[in-house]
Specification:
Low-confidence stretches of chain B: none
Distance between the termini of chain B: 34 Å
Low-confidence stretches of chain A: none
Shape of chain B: globular
Order of helices and strands of chain A: EEEEEEEEEEE
Shape of chain A: globular
Number of strands of chain B: 11
Helix content of chain B: under 10%
Number of helices of chain A: 0
Oligomer: heterodimer
Order of helices and strands of chain B: EEEEEEEEEEE
Largest sheet of chain A: 6 strands, mixed
Number of helices of chain B: 0
Helix content of chain A: under 10%
Chain lengths: 114, 114
């Protein structure tokens, strides 16, 4: 069964520092992977997605992620954290042919220290 | 302008009551979903409809009944509410296409069962 695991339920970085949120996947077929962000009391917003077109994917708000098949990883990074990046981040894998559903990781709460 | 909207945003009710949550999307999408986010922020799919036809039905108590009057609307009715039903319920939609299509989420409905 396809699944994702996010390492670290809580990550704390200083403003201006590198952000690294880890996601590893398990899949017997080429996966389609997504990163979503959830700001407090809001719905989920797509940051970026991997669709096998390119291994380095750039998203909104300066985030990017690199698909590494050898490491079964799709880690999310941002060179310089901003206070507004504080949120919950979810990695997800798309499962199913046609009747697509998203299987989410446990989520990582990102805190930005001034 | 709202792409996926849900009503109500907050719902507080007593155990044993019956309640409904409504979802509407104006994106012209064919497929809609209900997800449940528990108190630990874990997101799990409940149902999916495509053009008013149920296509995903996860292991959900039959007290939960989705209804899709048309492809722009997907409502969730819950009978005999229990304490464990307290959660945030998210509606989502996408075009019916490949597994790379983005799911767009509503703002969520926070259900509290007392």
């Amino acid at each position: 069964a396809q699944s994702v695991t996010q390492l670290g339920s809580h990550v704390s970085v200083s403003e201006g520092a590198l952000v690294l949120l880890r996601c590893n996947y398990s899949s017997s077929v080429p996966p389609y992977l997504f990163w979503y962000v959830q700001y407090p009391n809001q719905g989920l917003q797509l940051l970026l997605k991997y669709t096998s077109a390119a291994t380095l994917v750039k998203g909104i708000n300066g985030f990017e992620a690199e698909f590494k098949k050898s490491e079964t990883s799709f880690h999310l990074t941002k060179p310089s954290a901003h206070m507004s990046d504080a949120a919950e981040y979810f990695c997800a894998v798309s499962v199913g042919q046609g009747a697509q559903k998203l299987v989410f990781g446990q989520g990582t709460r990102l805190t930005i220290n001034p | 302008d709202t792409a996926v909207s849900q009503t109500p945003k907050y719902l507080v009710t007593q155990m044993g009551n019956d309640k409904s949550i409504k979802c509407e999307q104006n994106l012209g999408h064919d497929t809609m979903y209900w997800y449940k986010q528990d108190s630990k922020k874990f997101l799990k799919i409940m149902f999916s409809y495509n053009n008013k036809e149920l296509i995903i039905n996860e292991t959900v108590p039959n007290r939960f009944s989705p209804k899709s009057p048309d492809k722009a609307h997907l409502n969730l009715h819950i009978n005999s509410l229990e304490l464990g039903d307290s959660a945030v319920y998210f509606c989502a939609s996408r075009r019916r296409g490949g597994n790379t299509d983005t799911q767009y989420f509503g703002p969520g409905t926070r259900l509290t069962v007392l």
